[in-house]
């Protein structure tokens, strides 16, 4: 298997539970213990001000908030995939997450498109989340 | 109850290219002229706030030119709201009762600066290596849209059109046409030559729908203001009291938390919140304003700020412009100085220069471009990242 040549995240301790859950093909986000709100990307405080949170699973479904189609990729490894889609997706629980929309032609993506998370084990240590269309 | 603060003296230099002067020369010129305008000297000043965002000088360096009296100096930086922040810093000290007089100065050497912000993409190498926590995420510029200012503000205008309809390339160009017409009456503007709609639309496209004359003019310039307390003003001459301009509101806001705002600037919410606070503090509404200087860093920005400053109904900015309202002979003159597009935008000077423009009209000293009978005006700036600064100014009753 060829070496993985795309970007690899450097994971701060606060973010570790998110990536650990992805490795087990689950999506877990911080949920505030005071107001119940989910948030992403990880942060020490909830917007409500509370530092108390748990890592809790989300359904993994949402809608495309906005997107762009990349034709000129940042590195040769990414260029092989071009054109590809980068989308902001509003998850059903509220937070927005960014990733690719895969499993359809880029020109089929639209704002409001229902999508769901799929898992991509890019190395034994690293699993990424992406989105695919959901009917 | 904290006491009121007043603008006692204010000045701006000619905006444009000053190859023979550095930032300190320009700052000294504006500061000394503001002191003279106020009828006071550096010996009276209790606090100095100084803004020079792109660097090259500091308040302490200015003191060495115009008077070292040992007073506290605040060197402030707040993106394009730096000048407004310097002004608000001395207003706070005056209102707190710590000093009777404060001096705020903003200066920039920006001629030939080109596009601002963005450009991180050019540092890319074929292979990517993470460096540290923030380097762990690649820069988004050029990958997910753009961070260059022309790109960001082009999107903001297009978004308004997407949401409410009625916008077009020509509509945005007509906003720039207005400001370039206004500046023909402003001898201190960077550009004071009238531009036709055709010239504007056929100029170099920077980021659709903004061509070059629809972007703020990078230029050199400085502005300075002397602020005085209410109680001190009462002891000054009738002439000083008559020309003093009341600061009815001085507001700074930043982004409230919202989903997605960790990545994307939102110039609308930050301005709308600032305007709401400023009107409430001043006890007036937008309908009471006689003129407005708003942050038209791009023609697209001017359109959305008609709405954000509540000069029109929500969603009504296109109709507001098409009615002729923001022209100098309209019912709500906007950017009669020529605005950032034509007067120019030496970053840290802008948030004091727009107050200077308003004061000029309230004092009845604006010459050919005087808005007759002006009593109340609003000056607005935003800096990305984000900050909004708003000052509402009222004519003296003395």
Shape of chain A: globular
| Biggest sheet strand line-up of chain B | 3-2-4-7-1-8-11-10-9
State the share of residues found in helices of chain B, binned by percent: 25-40%
Number of helices of chain B: 14
How would you describe what is shown here?
- The complex is a heterodimer of chains A (about 140) and B (about 400).
- With about 140 residues, chain A is mainly β.
- Chain A folds into 2 domains: about 10-60, no CATH class; about 60-135, OB fold (Dihydrolipoamide Acetyltransferase, E2P) (Beta Barrel), CATH 2.40.50.
- Helix content of chain A is about 10%, strand content about 35%.
- Chain A has 2 helices and 8 strands, in the order H-E-E-E-E-H-E-E-E-E.
- In chain A, the strands form 2 sheets. Chain A has a 5-stranded antiparallel β-sheet with strand order 6-5-4-7-8. Chain A has a 3-stranded antiparallel β-sheet with strand order 2-1-3.
- In chain A, about 20% of the residues are buried.
- Chain B is of the alpha/beta class and about 400 residues long.
- Chain B folds into 2 domains: about 5-115 and about 220-245, Thiolase/Chalcone synthase (Peroxisomal Thiolase, Chain A, domain 1, 3-Layer(aba) Sandwich), CATH 3.40.47; about 150-215 and about 250-395, Thiolase/Chalcone synthase (Peroxisomal Thiolase, Chain A, domain 1), CATH 3.40.47.
- Chain B contains 14 helices and 11 strands.
- Chain B has helices spanning about 25-40, 60-65, 80-95, 130-135, 150-165, 170-180, 195-200, 230-235, 240-245, 265-280, 300-310, 315-320, 340, 345-360, and strands at about 5-10, 45-50, 75, 100-110, 205, 210, 220-230, 245-255, 290-295, 375-385, 385-395.
- In chain B, helix 5 (about 150-165) packs across helix 11 and helix 6 packs across helix 11 (about 300-310).
- The two termini of chain B are about 20 Å apart.
- The relative contact order of chain B is 0.19.
- The model of chain B has no long low-confidence stretch (mean pLDDT about 95).
- At the A-B interface, strand 4 and strand 5 of A face helix 4 of B.
